[in-house]
């Protein structure tokens, strides 16, 4: 089974990813993966840390001469400032004599609950892992997934839709929005609204505040029949929602126009099925996509899209009301270097997470130990699909 | 590990649930489980099928003299109308000579993609499993979870918040809303708006249309520290979102005020931490709950809540545009007996699904082969929590 | 993923099996499955229970008109004597007033440790699940696996090799041994030694004692490349050993001549590779099979074999020394109806267990939602294999 | 859940281990882990590679100031000779112009099947992962497990019992044998037979041959009730057999006297239960241990033991008959630097693997996020056990 695990603290040695299950002989373009890491780092409103790091993958295993060899792929992305944190983050020894543990939990973070759960005395132990730095690992895994998906003609993308309540507007297709967003500072498609978003971010920054927003991620070139309705855990909508909700800061996920469709009638929001005899391959087409391309937890093929809500970053320069656990006095939460608005960067993480779920669903369907084998199975399916309509006719 | 699997077709022999991992010696009240099944069946706007079935659990294994014995629990809930469907749903033999396979897929259902994926000739094979009937199994598993959670003082509940865009209003606490909803036809807390919802449903019914809506589910009495920030798949928000999104018809999930908080500033939506020395047990309190009670994927204790969006039922009396696969002609989708609005009933399923995820998180934390052992570990933790504030003080 | 779970107590309602992951459109011959259950029941030295039961599968889900439909398959095999045990095994109510809990643990069973682990007062709760009756579920799952494997030309079989130290002898091939064993009372291939085994069993029976033995299970028609060396848990030898060792009574597993090869030199026990240009398909042949057909955890193709050691049944008519927990006095262990020698019957269970592991390894390699799709992938691989030698030549 | 994954090639950058699920606040002694790695490296008959490497763990994550922090633990053990292999093992670029892929598969290795499975042209891709070097990762994980088990008073050890058919003899207890073995060149307990084993190894070496052997691993200080009879995959015997059989070269596993007991009568091999009122804690004692301490897949407490058979190393200086795939000519298999007899070193790996399975079984039973919490649950159980006999009495 295709899966990955990440490890690593925010100011430790680095972030480790181990990916298991990719077939052998897959061509791996490390430049692409590094570029994905760079995309994750860029983003208007990024904090100063972004300047100092240039994340790069170091391959520890699983790749030889730019190809996967079927063995687990281990990647290390070093934390460039580890040396500065060594005395505080060392696995060995004991804390320096002048070290002050973190004792003021930040609302909106796992700080307080984490301290209790793991019986720590120092919130630093929580902060270091409950950190957006961990998403480096997900972007690496997602970059591999994107490479894998390309073999099947699938591309994954997205765009920011709103920040702090300011919404991008425009009657464009999904791919037009993605294209415009890719050249945009805030990864959004509406130049005019983007300016308002920027002002809002700058104002929030001045005032020591933070902002959230919404974004859309999707994929095109999909086959019908990914995921399954037969078991709850095989439903692709469930897997996607679970994966996206695990990204730090994400508090809402809807498949297509989820919350809107809850206000409508069935006749308004279900995507009618049409037959287009001129359509090559798969002639059953839709002229709307309220469903996000998923019905009963299964892709209808071609396209899927999902919207996420990200809360404002909970580390504020003007600290939120909190309590110092060492005195039990009410004090403002401490500030630890942080962005003002992480929505454009979270979009890159969400793309990665979506890409990995889709890669899993392709792999689950087609199997194969070598990419050639997986592709043969995929081509069989494509052929079957292209003959499907003809075969069904006259059967009933 | 605590887990369950369901099996069974909508008009087959019945729905089977196998639940693994509950500790032994847990007292099982079968009447309560049957009452949960009854709650699932009730609901204004339910279709005629509801009248004819009285779902009841038949214990096949794992319980002796009203107690769990540590072995897998298998439950069968028979489909009361199986005999009427026997010639069409039999595992043996072949279809009756006059049998017409289903060849018109319904938009919004897995019908078309399912047919393709599994290479069927008869959409009946899809319909039978991609059916809300399967949620019987989830309610059974959820009822066991509720029984388990009671040992820890946790209760799970919810209410309908809107139907077809008509929203219940009222400045009430969560538990007040749950209490009022439990006596309401539509499981909502606002009598006045409920009447409007009912009119809406009746109108939709007349017109052969369907309606969706939103509901909230939550739990109280929780300990802090359920879930974990250390790995994506251990985050409770991820598990909850994945589980709720797997319920048929659910298209959106937000943890607390997820989508609203994406429009706000950090200073407005993060729930400040206060210290209340008079509070027994755990003195770190919140005066708001935008976060839904989950920070960094971990419970802060006491309370959590989540909102779901349900699309209108995709089986409409006035069939949506579709295609007859046997002729490739565009025809209205066929109607198969169905409700107009399943939101109040889906709420019961969502409670069940949430309860099971929470039960898993308790069990993961406390382990134990017998319920007495699990409870001892829980009591240790309660004691630790109650001394936590005192111990922290003076440490920093 | 292909997997199954069993539930059910020895004298409860029955044994339930839920199998998940088989592709759709697989033809299911229920008579074959019932015949496998009958094979499990037969066996010289079987206890009286065997006469009264005729195990038969009842399909609860997942099969329609003799074909799988991709949904979970649930099967119930009723316990024919449940009615006689109803007052003692009922999920409801309380024990009858005259009921005496079982308080004397049997050495060699889970009785004592189970009672402690699950904090029971009645060993009956252990006995009922820690019973060979559970293997009914494994035989059902294994029968499905055998049906699946037939699509790939794989057959699974085995034979008893020794009972109570009496060994069958004969210079025969594996398939000859399997063929002879299938017509033999004790499922062994050596008529003469079988007579001695029978005498031994009869003598043991007279004396209230029990006997164990060894058997071999294997499969032919396999492709090379099942399992993998890349991860411990993907190794087929590991999966096979884990699965076989989970059968009640099995205390030893060796892959091929495992324990013998530990006494030999490398030059004596590694199976040399030869090239046979006349061999169709896969021309790299072996002339010995010490390795059992598994190297580095991977099949070399064609054939694999494994040997198991089964201990004597631990329920003896002449009770072993034990302690009555209600008095703490040393007493003989109680006797609960039991066989004298279960080796021939365990062989059937082991075949089933092996078949399921092999089915998993085929499914992991070829994927597919419908059996047609799985077969297409298999045929691709067969074609690749047949050209493999030619393609390799001249490459180095 | 407690689990680990390894990655890394034999001549790549190093071996990576990611361990998930250990509770926080566990004290980690890195010197102990390095010493375990050193034990794995030492061993009479080790090849020359052993001299040049000094394996040492580099902590990448999960440990701070010598304590676990609940986050995944990532460890890198560098391969000291990576620089010499860089042009051949680099993840980037292409093979050097003069590079000759490996084209002669070694019998007894995954070489041929691996090449086919993953559609390689170069057996090097197989050799690198299907290598005993991977066991470095298992020893690291096992060292953590041993550290964890110490909290519960459990120690794991073992000894070599035979090499090339020469058996150590001596009427000693398990712990005496372990003690003697720890000071012995071949990790065996019988000085006299060890000399014979050494001669045998030297002779094999001279003749370009290899040797296998058997060893015993076990644990003492165990609680009763680890593992479970309720499900096949929860049985501890199954887990242990699966884990041990996944060690390269292991071809046989028996729980206690598995194969011997298959030749005996029930009355001879089942370990009678006695009551010893003077025994503190758990008064139900055994005076034999044929069962290996596992009945019905569950520990009886105190002690368990298992025997493994290791085949001779399949890389022989005098190459076994094989085929050059680039010419299809029959040639001797190539030699790649290798030991003559790896049995004493495999023993260390087996201890590690056993330790990890036992750690999992403790963690499954007691849960806990911090080691303090796990220990509290353990102490509850110990207390329950110590009162068990008294409570049972008079109950029946």
From TrEMBL, chains A, B, C, D:
<feature type="binding site">
    <location>
        <begin position="129"/>
        <end position="131"/>
    </location>
    <ligand>
        <name>FMN</name>
    </ligand>
</feature>
<keyword id="KW-0274">FAD</keyword>
<feature type="binding site">
    <location>
        <position position="40"/>
    </location>
    <ligand>
        <name>NADP(+)</name>
    </ligand>
</feature>
<keyword id="KW-0285">Flavoprotein</keyword>
<keyword id="KW-0057">Aromatic amino acid biosynthesis</keyword>
<comment type="subunit">
    <text>Homotetramer.</text>
</comment>
<feature type="binding site">
    <location>
        <position position="296"/>
    </location>
    <ligand>
        <name>FMN</name>
    </ligand>
</feature>
<feature type="binding site">
    <location>
        <position position="337"/>
    </location>
    <ligand>
        <name>FMN</name>
    </ligand>
</feature>
<comment type="function">
    <text>This reaction introduces a second double bond into the aromatic ring system.</text>
</comment>
<comment type="similarity">
    <text>Belongs to the chorismate synthase family.</text>
</comment>
<dbReference type="InterPro" id="IPR035904">
    <property type="entry name" value="Chorismate_synth_AroC_sf"/>
</dbReference>
<keyword id="KW-0028">Amino-acid biosynthesis</keyword>
<dbReference type="InterPro" id="IPR000453">
    <property type="entry name" value="Chorismate_synth"/>
</dbReference>
<feature type="binding site">
    <location>
        <begin position="311"/>
        <end position="315"/>
    </location>
    <ligand>
        <name>FMN</name>
    </ligand>
</feature>
<keyword id="KW-0456">Lyase</keyword>
<dbReference type="Pfam" id="PF01264">
    <property type="entry name" value="Chorismate_synt"/>
</dbReference>
<comment type="pathway">
    <text>Metabolic intermediate biosynthesis; chorismate biosynthesis; chorismate from D-erythrose 4-phosphate and phosphoenolpyruvate: step 7/7.</text>
</comment>
<dbReference type="InterPro" id="IPR020541">
    <property type="entry name" value="Chorismate_synthase_CS"/>
</dbReference>
<dbReference type="GO" id="GO:0004107">
    <property type="term" value="F:chorismate synthase activity"/>
</dbReference>
<keyword id="KW-0288">FMN</keyword>
<keyword id="KW-0521">NADP</keyword>
<protein>
    <recommendedName>
        <fullName>Chorismate synthase</fullName>
        <ecNumber>4.2.3.5</ecNumber>
    </recommendedName>
</protein>
